[in-house]
């Protein structure tokens, strides 16, 4: 299948996606907050809405990046180098500032599920960090010379969502316990911060070495 990346690339991407999904941030905070405030149905509505937003990002990134590749392989390579710098910036930010987790227990507990769903979509679609991430991270796993780049980019975007499903469901089911644990375990969060930083830095170094050989 032309849209499937090589196994080594898929394994590397999966590792990064697992760390990104498990690292506390705005999405995790929103899932857990909705669950604690309004129940598991609200938590799942938030997750489904966020995933729908990621489908849009995956589609736009695949179309836009493949168009850039068709127009100029050099420009695509420049974007990959910019992505390398972005990965290093993420790694440094994780070490300097730590995980962004602040559970909001206030708000309307009777908020309709449709509103939670739409709010989650909005959080993803309007979050510039997610846009930058998809534009700079996905190209790290596709070669500028690959004629099937668009299909692979889109597949990786959907694969990212697929990976998040079995990881996020237990978070929602155990929201109360997980939120309490995260807020009371700064050492665990710092360990995750350094693990996340290490993975991002490793991909950045790998990219630099690849560019140097080309």
From TrEMBL:
A molecular-function term among this protein's GO annotations: amino acid transmembrane transporter activity
Keywords, alphabetical: Cell membrane, Membrane, Transmembrane, Transmembrane helix
Subcellular location: Cell membrane
Domain of life where this protein originates: Bacteria
Keyword Transmembrane helix: yes
Membrane topology: Multi-pass membrane protein
Membrane-crossing residue ranges in chain numbering: 6-23, 44-69, 75-95, 116-141, 153-176, 188-209
Annotated GO CC locations: plasma membrane
PANTHER family (alphabetical): ARGININE EXPORTER PROTEIN ARGO, ARGININE EXPORTER PROTEIN ARGO-RELATED
Name used for this protein in its record: Homoserine/homoserine lactone efflux protein
Organism per entry: Hartmannibacter diazotrophicus
Gene of this entry: rhtB_5
């Amino acid at each position: 299948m032309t849209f499937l990346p090589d196994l080594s690339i898929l394994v590397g991407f999966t590792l990064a996606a697992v760390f990104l999904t498990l690292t506390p941030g705005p999405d995790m905070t929103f899932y857990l907050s909705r669950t604690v405030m309004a129940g598991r149905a609200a938590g799942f509505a938030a997750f489904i809405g966020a995933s729908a937003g990621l489908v849009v990002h995956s589609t736009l990134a695949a179309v836009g990046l493949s168009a850039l590749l068709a127009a100029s392989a050099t420009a695509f390579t420049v974007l990959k180098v910019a992505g390398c710098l972005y990965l290093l910036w993420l790694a440094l930010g994780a070490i300097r500032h730590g995980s962004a987790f602040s559970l909001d227990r206030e708000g309307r507990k009777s908020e309709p599920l449709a509103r939670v769903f739409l709010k989650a979509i909005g959080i993803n679609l309007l979050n510039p960090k997610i846009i930058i991430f998809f534009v700079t991270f996905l190209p790290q796993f596709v070669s500028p010379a690959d004629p099937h780049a668009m299909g692979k980019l889109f597949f990786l975007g959907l694969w990212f969502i697929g990976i998040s499903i079995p990881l996020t469901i237990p978070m929602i089911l155990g929201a109360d316990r997980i939120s309490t644990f995260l807020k009371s375990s700064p050492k665990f969060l710092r360990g995750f911060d350094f693990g996340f930083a290490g993975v991002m830095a490793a991909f950045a170094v790998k990219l630099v070495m690849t560019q140097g050989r080309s």
